[in-house]
Q: What sequence folds into this?
């Protein structure tokens, strides 16, 4: 029986920038109804949308002593409320043997990652689902064996990266199609067997750390990549005749890249290319959703364009196949994001028209293994008997080079299928042994001990999900920072724009930590100010290496802070102090007009980009530098503008 995709929307609180700009809330929710008011025409009736769930998380809450956000009214939706409505349904369907998919959509900064992963103690759907899965397994039916495998990938610029390995092949992993079942899979994607929730938690941390390193090296942020976490959940039991059967469920948890308009972000060059690829895949996803909605409404001869992007290939089952699917759309409440929020609501409204036909994935174990073995034998015989079909008759006017290229492609497809089948035939004990051999459990416990006692640098990133992920411990008397091709090799290797071979030297002695440039001209900023000589570092000081490696110091042995340093620092605080050091005011609540506030907002967004452009100019020996200048708009009939 066909079942509609369930759709939920969730509105977050104002962020600090929106509060600084005295933003007004344009959203309201009454039960499942969501209303949005046009800030330019407040007298017009609001536009209304009805979804399966509308979650109000904008206000009506407080933070308790343990850091949990607690509801002050029935209207406020906590992380647990969202899980009970959405995540619990995913779990129930997984135990029933259905494939399940949950994906989050919305503009950059709308709160997708908070709903999916969460921050601090306020865990999101992904960790709660994983935790509850293992708790339910402990209380499971007698005689049932449970097996859980885990994979984590991201799609960046239409390339697939495995987040459970430190390095990926150039061009990313290949996406192949299973010739028998028709669904797509990622060749050589690492799937690890996991035995408890702590195991999954470690793997998620490992994947996020690998993602952060790659994003920093590429001058990107995670909001520019789609992330797919897949949990393969198998239940093996014996039927009445004593035959072993396997009930299998693929749980896909997808955090989509932020949707954004190029004109609202000011993106150019590589960032515009990233945005174009994001919009390409999200547009392809939108086209697939529209086509599936048309099919569900009874239209005939509708082609569903799954092949238009890597994302839609991998989500084929989730959207139009054998899966029970949920979509959660994250909404910004601010009037300044009205257009993007309305676009998200319309996107979600289309998705709720899709109907899927999910079936239980249950088969006898011996039949599954036998079919995989038979298929691999056929593939082996194809290679032994000359390998591939003759292309002579059906190849038309193809040249020999084109025929050879097609043969190579077919061979690669068949080899990939053989590898995939061989992985599926491995015993569970073999999978667990392989996963434990490269497990990071020991590294994690050692790291936790060091955090309490050893001074260390922690990264900051524009995306909160990538902040506080990389730890560099200052264990030596002298810690060298620079490019990995330096001699001697640095203790902390960094790559990217404006990073010199010998970039910085950090000294630790007598409970005091100092930093100095490692080479003349090394670009380092401490608390927004350029570093020219040796300087003492204090707890929570911010250090920028080159143009995009931002860290802060944690000194557990001496918590004395520099003047003006808050108890907790983030990316936005670090960017504001860089802007202030350059002479730009960053206090939005000082009686400025909307245009002046918007100009200051643009300054904060532009400064890191201009820094990056100057670094590129320097690397290419162009002898040009760029600065952000505020010019009074009085002579042009405006308040101010940025140049």
A:
């Amino acid at each position: 029986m066909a079942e509609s995709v369930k759709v939920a929307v969730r509105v977050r609180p104002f962020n600090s920038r929106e509060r600084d700009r005295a933003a007004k809330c344009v959203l309201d929710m009454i039960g499942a109804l969501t209303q949005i008011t046009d800030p330019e025409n407040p007298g017009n009736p609001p536009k209304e949308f009805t979804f399966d769930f509308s979650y109000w998380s904008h206000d009506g809450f407080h933070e308790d002593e343990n850091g949990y956000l607690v509801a002050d009214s029935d209207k406020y939706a906590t992380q647990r409320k969202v899980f009970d409505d959405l995540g619990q349904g995913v779990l129930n369907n997984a135990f029933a043997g259905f494939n399940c998919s949950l994906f989050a959509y919305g503009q950059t900064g709308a709160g997708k990652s908070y709903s999916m992963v969460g921050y601090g103690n306020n865990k999101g759907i992904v960790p709660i689902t994983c935790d509850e899965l293992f708790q339910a397994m402990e209380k499971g039916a007698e005689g049932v064996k449970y097996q859980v495998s885990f994979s984590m990938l991201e799609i960046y610029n239409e390339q697939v990266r495995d987040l459970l390995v430190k390095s990926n092949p150039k061009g990313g992993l290949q996406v192949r199609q299973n010739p028998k079942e028709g669904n797509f899979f990622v060749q050589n994607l690492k799937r690890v067997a996991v035995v408890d929730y702590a195991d999954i938690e470690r793997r998620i941390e490992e994947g996020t750390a690998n993602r952060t390193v790659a994003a920093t090296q590429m001058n990107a942020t995670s909001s520019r990549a789609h992330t797919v976490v897949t949990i393969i959940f198998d239940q093996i039991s014996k039927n009445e005749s004593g035959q072993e059967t396997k009930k299998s469920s693929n749980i896909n948890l997808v955090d989509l890249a932020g949707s954004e308009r190029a004109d609202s972000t000011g993106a150019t060059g590589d960032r515009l290319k990233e945005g174009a690829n994001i919009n390409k895949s999200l547009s392809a996803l939108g086209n697939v959703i529209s086509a599936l909605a048309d099919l569900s409404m009874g239209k005939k001869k509708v082609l569903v364009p799954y092949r238009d992007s890597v994302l839609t290939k991998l989500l084929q089952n989730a959207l139009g196949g054998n899966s029970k699917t949920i979509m959660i759309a994250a909404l910004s409440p601010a009037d300044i994001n009205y257009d993007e929020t309305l676009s998200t609501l319309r996107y979600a409204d289309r998705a709720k028209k899709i109907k899927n036909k999910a079936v239980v994935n249950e088969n006898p174990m011996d039949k599954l293994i036998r079919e995989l073995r038979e298929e691999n034998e056929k593939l082996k015989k194809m290679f032994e008997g000359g390998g591939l079909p003759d292309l002579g008759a059906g190849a038309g006017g193809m040249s020999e080079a084109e025929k050879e290229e097609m043969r190579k492609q077919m061979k690669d497809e068949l080899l990939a299928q053989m590898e995939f089948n061989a992985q599926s035939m491995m015993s569970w004990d073999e999978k667990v042994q392989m996963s434990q051999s490269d497990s990071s459990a020991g590294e994690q416990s050692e790291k936790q001990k060091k955090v309490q006692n050893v001074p260390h640098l922690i990264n900051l990133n524009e995306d909160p999900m990538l902040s506080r992920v990389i730890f560099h411990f200052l264990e030596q008397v002298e810690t060298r920072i620079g490019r990995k091709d330096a001699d001697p090799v640095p203790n902390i290797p960094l790559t990217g724009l404006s990073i010199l071979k010998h970039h910085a030297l950090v000294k630790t002695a007598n409970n005091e930590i100092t930093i100095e440039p490692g080479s003349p001209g090394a670009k380092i900023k401490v608390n927004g100010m350029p570093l020219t000589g040796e300087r003492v570092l204090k707890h929570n000081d911010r250090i920028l290496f080159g143009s995009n490696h931002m860290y802060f110091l944690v000194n557990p042995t001496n918590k004395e802070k520099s003047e003006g340093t808050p108890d907790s620092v983030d990316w936005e605080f670090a960017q504001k102090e860089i802007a202030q050091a350059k002479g730009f005011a960053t206090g939005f609540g000082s009686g400025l007009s909307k245009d002046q506030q918007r100009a200051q907002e643009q300054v904060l967004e532009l400064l890191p980009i201009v820094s990056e452009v100057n670094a590129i100019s320097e690397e290419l020996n162009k002898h040009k530098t760029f600065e952000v200048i505020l010019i009074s708009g009085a002579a042009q009939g405006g308040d101010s503008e940025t140049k």
